[in-house]
Amino acid sequence: MNKIKYLMIALMAVILSVNLTACSDDDDNTKSNVERYQSEVEAAVKAQKKNNKAILLVAFGSTWQQAFDAFDQTVAAYKSAFPGYDVYLSFSSAICINRAAAGENAADGAEIRNYYAPNYWLEAFGRAGYEDITVQSLQVIPGEEYGRVVNFLKDFGNNVNNTLSNEYLKNVKLHLGTPLMATTDDVDALADALHANFSKYSSNGIVAFMGHGNPNEYDTYSANIRYTQLEEALQAKYGKNYYVGTVDMEDNFKTQVFARMQANGVQGNVYCAPLMSVAGDHAHNDMAGDDDEFNLNEENGEMEDTSWKVYFNAQDGFTCNDELEKDVVRGLLEYSNVRQLWINHTKTAVASEPLEYFHSNDGTE
Predict the structure, then answer these.
(1) In what order do the strands lie in the sheet with 206-211?
(2) Taking the mean position of all CA atoms in its chain, how far away is CA 270?
(3) Distance CA 307, CA 289 (A)
């Protein structure tokens, strides 16, 4: 079912991309999408540039207003934490970029917004002459999407477009901030922050966090283990009422989470909360959605098309309260103490030695 969903999403992205091109102004019809996006990003950088240092926050992306608001809060927090830096935000997902620009959730009150991929921002930073550039991943684990963030920065350092001078690239300082759970120390820090936010729920029932995860074939850096480690840290420190599952990590779907609850002998109220940077489609649909019926069909241990809320409500002795969306369906960036953990990673990055990514295209160094 996930494969079908991904194919449909990819098809929608192609359609949206064609529509966006077809609906462009006459003046833009002579430009390719790449040229048009680059010129739009460069105009934004020119309008906002006040310093010689820049921070680029890279999120996967979303089309929900709640997520847009969380991104705005995060940019504001970064500007406060890093005076002397210009702060920008980008999406790594082309699908999310196209859908946000097309106003996928505009009927529900979401703004139509233009977000752009990191390569456009980095190219614009170079052309604007920024002397110090930090890219901060807003991913939760160092998985497939984080690998893409790393490659965006490497491509820039290697002058993939061959538009920047070797002299500039030899001297610009590049830094990279790691995801939320890059190390086991990060796991412990996140466990403490989550308990501070959710202790009032864990004292009255079960807290089930839903992360994203990667299928085994896309488990870059073997990062899926961080979800297991987080559950272990939460339970070791704060008791058996904390659980961490995913939508894509094999052997850690909601069915396996439920089996672990049964093995520990817990039951009662279940509070489902997204373990994702923002609350978007996965949070509101896969986790807190109101499905028409309970789906008994399993694929690789997962029950597709059945939300976590519906699933747990169907289990004897478990209740997933309808009020949960008002209280706990919030992305991690909406919690100031969790957002601070990302900021701490950025502080570590800017204090570290610059990355040595530069290799000239013409053989000179």
Answers:
(1) 242-246, 206-211, 268-274, 318-319
(2) 25
(3) 5
